[in-house]
Structures are given as structure tokens and as C-alpha cells.
Amino acid sequence: MKVQVLALDGVFDTGLSSILDVLTTANELAMMLALDVPPFEVSVVGMRREVKTAQGFGVPVSAMPAPAGGDWLVVPAIGYKMPDLLVPALARPDVQDAAAALREARAGGIHLAAACIGTFVLAETGLLDGERATTTWWLAPLFRQRYPTVRLEDGRMVVKSGALVTAGAALGHVDMALWLVRRASPELANLVARYLIVDSRPAQSAYVIMDHLAHADPVVEKFERWARARLSEGFSLDDAADAVGASKRTLARRLQQVLGKTPLSYFQDLRVERAVHLLKTSDKSPDEIAGMVGYADGVTLRTLLRRRLGRGVREVRALG
Question: How far apart are CA 117 and CA 137, in angstroms?
Fold first, then answer.
């Protein structure tokens, strides 16, 4: 399998090296164990002759070859982690040239993948419009605002939609690279993960800092403060709208734009977050904690934890 890694100026060092290290390790293990898996033919390509990483290291790059059906073109993140720096970076000539090259590559049959902030570069092409995708969790509000027609599933780590694959934040580069290895050989992917000590991370929702996302919008921030003070009480959309000084429709729209959730869904998320914190830091029983966050009993809380955080997590085991 041929994999071209597109390194733009300011490429995120960890992202670029993670992809290369995973694929190189896969080749080494396949050879060492005599696995019947064709090697990954990996090359680093760029839009300019000189490329430096976000930390200032030079990256030797080749010109992007003509598209070949079935190959993969992978876009790691660029090192602009906050909106005020990322938005102007996306307008750079080399980034816009990359977007044009990605469109041409896809038209030629190449499969495209992007991780973390690299998903913004892929979204600039318009190819993600109407498709499912994920992105780095803390930039999800900006992603929704900038690309409203993309069906964002930012709680997931890796999302495949047709010939396009996107992965979540930072070390999502590892998950994306392992996903590519798994296409060639699930056995080899499992071996690489074990050698590199990579746990299964099907979702990035467990890593999300809700406060960070909520503070991206004043209405959402007010709703969050109101909700946290009333987790043990019943939810009322009328009361919530009155508290934040907005109509119910405006409140619902802002939450959808920023968090991709309804007011009730976010309220439930805050309840679960609080319950998890209490499970970790207190000696209270599940039934006591359930009452503190507005649920009738520990059974209801256990069900919600399993649904929202995934079966097998330590917090669920703590419920017994």
C-alpha cells in the first residue's frame, strides 16, 4: 500500500512522526515475523520545497506525484492549536494549494485521511461536505461554524465516510495510522499496538474538557453555569432560557452550533461528568451519588455511564 504523508509548513511534530513510526514499525514487524503483508511504501510530500515543523525542524519532502487509484494521501495536523492562529493559517497560499491538490488527488482515485487539525485542511477542500467526520475536540465549535454541512461526530476517534477518513486530536494520528495498518492486516495492527503500548481508544469523548467548549460562546457558558448549579433538580428548558436571557430556540441553536448537543443532552452529560468525579473522589455509594445528580437510583446511573462512557471503563466497574 502506498501512503503519501502531506507535510505542510508548521506541521505538528508528534503527528508527523507518529504516522511514520507506526507504518515503519508495521513494516519491521511484518518482515521480522514473516507475515504475508505487503510493505507500506511511505513517502513525505509537500507543497513547497522547504518545510519546517512547528518546532523548527526541517522536513525533507518530495513533490506530490500524479494521483494513483487506491493509494492513500494522509494529512497530519499543522501546529496551530487555537482559533485565532488557525483561521489565518488556513488562508495561507500553501494550505489553499494543498486543498486544491487534495481535490485533484481524490478525483484521481486516491483515498484521503486527516487527523487532528489536519481535518481542517481536508475540510477546506469541500470534500467533507455532507460526509461524516471527526476533528480535534477542542476545535469542534470552530469546525461546526466553518463547515456547517459536515456531519461532525467529534466524540469519535476515527470516522470513515466513503473514501475519506478523519481522526481526533493529537494522538489520534496514531489511531489513524493503526487504522491504515488494520486494513492490510488486523493481526499486524494488533502487534504494532502492543509493541508501541497503544490502548484501544474508540472515542475521544472521555478526554473532552466540557468547560473549555462551553466557554467558546457566552450563551452556552451561562447555560453551563445554570445547569451545574441544578444537576440534582429536574431539567426545564423554559427555566434555562430565562436564566441565560435567550429564547428556547436561540439556546438550542447555540448549543447545537458549539457542542453539537441539545440542552437536555448537555445537561445529562454534566450529570454524568459530576457522577464520575464523585465516584473517583468520594466514598459515597452509587445510590447516594445518583441522588446527588438527579437520578432515582444507581441502576439508572450505571446504565447512563455505560451508554455514554463505554462498557468496561473504571468508573462503571466502581459501580459493581
Answer: 10
Q: pLDDT at position 280, please?
A: 85
**Burial zone of 150 (CB within 10 Å; 0-12 exposed, 13-18 middle, 19+ buried):** buried
Does residue 205 carry a pLDDT above 90?
no
Architecture of domain 209-318: Orthogonal Bundle (1.10)
Give the model's pLDDT for residue 312: 39
Q: What percent of the chain has pLDDT over 90?
A: 66
* Residue 286: all three cell numbers together: 452509587
d(CA 106, CA 264): 40
User: Where does residue 110 fall: left (phi above 0), alpha (psi -120 to 50 degrees), or beta otherwise?
Assistant: beta
Q: Where are the domains of the chain?
A: 2-206, 209-318
| Lowest-pLDDT choice from 36-40, 51-55, 85-89, 209-213 | 209-213
Q: Can you identify the CATH homologous superfamily of domain 2-206?
A: Class I glutamine amidotransferase (GATase) domain (3.40.50.880)
Q: What are phi and psi of 284, to 5 degrees?
A: -75, 150
pTM of the model: 0.77
Q: Are 67 and 97 in contact (CB under 8 A)?
A: no
